[in-house]
Specification:
Length: 506
């Protein structure tokens, strides 16, 4: 790997393009090997993530934000283009609209992959726009794989090197750059074109983190879809010869100087050398439970503690000692009263570790719908337990969260339960059971089981197997074969649900 120092430069420096981060990202993307030469483990993991995305997308088809995004996309039918999850087979819309609908479906349940380092990310959000453009432009499964591996490489590098959260900038700013790079790799575009697309994408998708603060709305699902749509449009303009603000990262009125650490900002972004294997996707991990990633280990810990805790009406207090990020983002350290509100939105509840811990302790399981149902959140005994749960930052857990060794990095915490007689029960868990370093890491069978579970009753068994067969042969698919990556569903039921929605402009 090569460590690139990124800092602010005054315009008078006339920083050469080849020395700008956007160019270096683009060069890594356009230097990505052909699919046959990619790291075999990285390719296998890319297939896993295609399966994972389809699982959560299908499970969300009759959720309102997904139906709205789908309705907007289907209002733009096209002779060529890309498919939409839940739509009639063969129906096509322009790729940017397919990315919008499918990206929202993938993100809605907060149930696909994640990577946590200096910042946060859901790198699987790169796949919907890449798949849409692959279909639209007549690319193969091998081309799509090349794009996915490249997008993950760029996304992970940015998340490791540049923290957005400290300055309350939403993490989709890194996503849009990664998607533009993935599209460039997939389409074999010149480095100059990808460089311009990265600049445009970052400039147009930098937003505040209010989308994940306070009363969290459906925009949390739309935000990455918007970034994917914007990245496609940026690539289209760049291919037509249009430029971008530059230097987008290093400029004196640019991203680092005014959005992040300021004029004295300096960051280190590590990128692979020319010819070095692209393996960053292997550092990322998926979710076994439908909740914010930092709650994954907490859910597993709660399930383990349930037998030890005994009757929960005896709990006087439950304190989770955890990292700065967990405490401040999904814990009581966020100072969001909404995280303790029984009438809060699903999006808010899946960013409330006190709520999640309470329900997991009571139910002994976690479900992507039932655990968030309004009547579930309003149970008096749940509310009583919920309000006894708090988080505190523990410097040791913060240190472990940022450990440079992925095998030692920890995203969990230590729970201390005090009962009404003063006795104390303690337990801790560093990573979720499904994490690569966990008790039962997800492998291909975990992804396929998740797919079958989430699509049960929506996708017939034969159609489930047809999708899994196609995904497993992704490297060999031709352009028509990419349509098989959209599992066949009962479109009549989907259409009936969509008909209940109010009309918009389209």
């Amino acid at each position: 790997m090569i460590d690139h120092q990124v800092r602010v430069h005054p315009s008078a420096d006339r920083l050469p393009r080849e020395e700008q981060l956007a160019w270096k990202l683009a060069a890594v993307a356009t230097g990505t090997q052909e699919a046959a030469d990619l790291d075999a483990a990285a390719v296998a993991m890319a297939v896993n993530r295609v399966i994972d995305n389809a699982s959560v997308a299908v499970a969300s088809l009759r959720r309102r934000p997904v139906a709205v995004a789908r309705a907007q996309a289907l209002a733009h039918p096209a002779r060529s283009g890309a498919g939409v999850f839940g739509a009639e087979p063969g129906l096509r819309v322009p790729p940017e609209w397919a990315a919008w609908a499918n990206g929202t479906a993938v993100r809605e349940l907060d149930f696909h992959d994640t990577y946590l380092a200096a910042d946060y990310s859901h790198p699987g959000d790169n796949i919907p726009p890449l798949l849409a453009v692959a279909q639209h432009t007549g690319r193969s499964g091998a081309d799509l794989l090349r794009g996915i591996v490249a997008a993950y490489e760029i996304h992970v590098a940015l998340v490791k090197g540049i923290c957005l959260h400290t300055h309350r900038i939403d993490h989709v700013a890194h996503l849009s750059a990664a998607t533009a790079c993935g599209l460039g790799a997939m389409l074999r575009l010149p480095t100059e074109t990808v460089y311009q697309a990265v600049g445009q994408a970052v400039h147009t998708t930098t937003a505040t983190r209010q989308s994940r603060k306070g009363e969290i709305s459906s925009w949390k699902a739309f935000a990455p879809a918007f970034a994917g749509k914007a990245a496609i449009e940026a690539v289209d303009r760049a291919m037509r010869g249009e430029g971008a603000p530059a230097p987008i990262y290093e400029g004196e009125d640019g991203f680092l100087a005014w959005m992040l650490d300021g004029p004295k900002a300096s960051y280190t972004v590590s990128l692979p050398e020319p010819g070095e294997a692209r393996r960053a996707i292997l550092d990322t991990y998926t979710k076994e439970h439908s909740a914010e990633y930092q709650a994954q280990a907490v859910i597993d810990l709660a399930l383990r503690l349930r037998a030890k805790a005994g009757p929960l009406d005896r709990v006087r207090s439950l304190v989770l000692h955890t990292s700065h990020h967990t405490h401040r983002v999904i814990g009581s350290g966020a100072n969001d009263p909404q995280k303790y509100d029984p009438a809060a939105s699903r999006e808010t509840l899946d960013h409330s570790v006190p709520y999640i811990f309470a329900v997991a302790l009571e139910d002994g399981t976690w479900h992507h719908e039932r655990s968030y149902a309004p009547d579930r959140a309003r149970r008096p005994e749940t509310v009583d337990l919920w309000k006894k749960i708090s988080t505190v930052e523990d410097p040791e857990w913060t240190r472990r969260y940022h450990d440079p060794d992925p095998a030692r990095r920890a995203f969990g915490g230590r729970a201390v339960i005090t009962l009404d007689d003063g006795s104390v029960i303690e337990d801790e868990l560093a990573v979720a059971d499904a994490h690569p370093a966990g008790a039962r890491p997800f492998a291909r069978d975990g992804y396929t089981a998740k797919f079958r579970t989430l699509t049960e009753g929506i996708v017939e068994p034969a159609a489930q197997e047809a999708f899994l067969d196609a995904a497993g042969l992704l490297a060999e698919l031709d352009t028509p074969g990419l349509a098989d990556l959209f599992p066949a569903v009962d479109t009549d039921a989907i259409t009936a649900y969509d008909a209940q929605l109010p009309e918009g402009l389209f």
